[in-house]
Structures are given as structure tokens and as C-alpha cells.
Amino acid sequence: MDGDNTRKAGTQTEKSVCCCHKKTTPRDEKELKQLKNRLSRMVGQLNGIGKMLDENRYCGDVLTQVAAVESALQAFGYLVLQEHMETCVVEEIQKGNTAVVDEAVELVKKLK
Hints:
This protein is mainly alpha-helical. It has helices at 29-54, 59-94, 100-111, and strands spanning 6-9, 12-15.
């Protein structure tokens, strides 16, 4: 994306539709704390995998932890996506910008 928040799609120039680009997303303290706690747990799990490698732990045990981190990260992404859909997407649709739905669909595809 270039500086004026547009992107090229074939020969057509489209305006970026996400309300959150270059803006902040207000989150209440409880939600922010929950997201940061989840993120901290994932960092801990990743560090644990590093220690398992240092200890030459059994491959199956390492893979089990990798699967746990992947699952936690995907759940984290879905929480952020849900918040985006309930706030940014709804606000843009209420303003008449239904193109934001296309952006939301692309975000869902990225998370699968």
C-alpha cells in the first residue's frame, strides 16, 4: 500500500476500506488485559519449546507443544477478528461502506 491508503487491483485503484488502518482501536482495559495475558502465555509456550530443543526432548513432545501454540495463536486471531467485525466492520457498514465486507472476508481467509 502506498502513502495515500490506496492499493492497485489489476488496472483498478481501490481505496482501502478498513477503519482501523493508521488508527487505533479502542479496547477496554479488561479486553486488553485478556489479550495480553493470552499473548504472554504463547510467548511462554514458545520459550518452553526452545528449552525442549535445548534438552533434546522427544520429537513427539515438541510437536505436541507446537500444536498447542498454533491452536492458541489461532484462537487469539479469532478473538481479534471478532472484535474487528463487531466494531470496525459494523461502523463502516453503518456509514454505508459495504466494501468493508470484502476486507473482512480477506481477513478470515488469512486466519484459516
